Amino acid sequence: MSKPDHSIDPRIRESAKKEFLAYGFEKASLKAICENAKITTGALYKRYKGKEDLFCSVVADTVADLNGVVEQRCAVDVNDLSDDALMKAWDMDEEAMLWWFQFLYARRDNFVLLIKCADGTEYSNFQHDWVEKMTVKSYEYFCEAQKRGLTYVNVSMEEMHILLSAFWTTIYEPFIHHYAWEQMEAHCKLVCDLFNWQRVLGFGLPT
């Protein structure tokens, strides 16, 4: 029994990525994807159920990488953290923030697909869903700090989601507007100056 030929798969995904970036998922043409990949539509359907399956295949590695970061950070038991570590988790450290921009910039095409071009796919609400994932663990950190008396303010889960939505919007937008890396570096400094989580969440202030 002959083995399936996967040699053209990278060519299909590259053609699909360019088409999705140019037109978004809903307006992208499977016919154009096939023509640019120099394959027949029959060859495409042997590999993918349809346009959404192809889109999901294109972004799969990036989604897995992002989920891996979330899983790694969620594995931390906040009960084991020192008071100092809980407070420092909210520092707008430029080096740590730059790590995020580097991580996303290395995957920028697929990240843009997820945040800008995914309407009509299972990732239509990616921006909201990603913030929701970040909110769950962030709120756990905050509640632990509050329990220990490290902060005097009350912030609901919903408010935390709103704050993090604003924060992540400042990260999404440079990718949507096709910033070069030098612009990303400068923007990273602005984001660090803009968000003073220690002050907003009341760390180190008297009750």
What is the terminal-to-terminal distance?
Answer: 74 Å
Largest sheet: none
Number of DSSP helical runs: 11
State Rg: 21 Å
Q: Structural class, from helix and strand content?
A: mainly alpha
The count of DSSP E runs of length 2 or more, i.e. the number of strands, is 0
Rough outline: elongated
Strand content: under 5%
> Which stretches of 5+ consecutive residues score pLDDT under 50?
none
Key features of this structure:
11 helices, DNA binding, 207 residues, 0% strand, DNA-binding, single chain, HTH-type_TetR-like_transc_reg, 69% helix, mainly alpha
Describe the 3D structure.
It comes from Anaerotignum neopropionicum. The protein is an all-alpha fold. The chain has a domain at 61-200. The protein contains 11 helices and no strands. α1 packs across α4, α1 packs parallel to α7 (108-116) and α8 crosses α9 (157-176). The longest helix has 24 residues, at 51-74.
